[in-house]
Amino acid sequence: MSETAARLEPEGSGLLERRFKFAANGTTIGRDTMAGITTFIVMSYIIFVNPQILSFSGVEGLEAIGLPFNQVLAATCLVAGVMTIVMGLYTNRAYAIAPGLGLNAVVAFSLVAGEGLSFPAAMGLVVVEGIAVTILVLTGTREKIMDAIPLDLKKA
Questions:
Q1: 76 FRET partner, CA 20 to 30 A, in 4, 6, 86, 92?
Q2: Residues 65/113, Cβ–Cβ less than 8 Å
């Protein structure tokens, strides 16, 4: 047996191997753990940037209308952690889930600071937008719209 094949054999019939099938997927528990640590390090900036955006941290004149930094930090960590675990258990794949900073900046600086909406009203708009996109996906309309866009425009 080759050295590579020996390393990819199941490390036992433990719960983790039975659930995630490391050997069948050509990996090991150690390799997947290192990949998870690497992914966390790459994404960890979100833990601090998201609260800075939503609390208007360091933006003179806007800090009073921002969300509390520590609460947003805790919520960011909880949501990212829980949803990453749920996604991993549901898909049996190593997908990391975290808040998208582009939409957060739109909410904070365009809707709240620019248009004067409250954070609850701005978040309500995000929910409505999410429902609209979900309906477009479930009805196949999103795919029809994407198919109608010329390939050259998509590549641009």
A1: 92
A2: yes
What's the pLDDT score for residue 95?
Answer: 86
Q: How many CA atoms lie within 13 A of 53 on its CB side?
A: 20
What the block records as the tokens of 148 is 């109608």
For 105, the token pair is: 């900046």
Kindly state the DSSP code that residue 66 receives in the 8-state scheme.
Answer: S
Residue 53 and residue 105 in contact, taking contact as beta carbons nearer than 8 Å: yes
Alpha-carbon distance of 134 to 155, in angstroms, equals 24
Cα–Cα dist 82/96, whole Å:
10
Condensed to tens digits (0 to 9), the pLDDT of residues 48-99 reads: 999 999 999 888 889 889 999 999 999 999 999 999 999 988 988 888 899 8
pLDDT 10s digits, 5-46: 545 544 556 888 888 888 888 888 888 889 889 999 999 999
φ/ψ of residue 50, rounded to 5:
-60, -50
Name residue, tokens 């009203």: 121
Distance CA 93, CA 85 (A): 10
Residue in this structure with the two tokens 């609260």, named with its chain if needed: 51
Tokens of 70: 């520590």
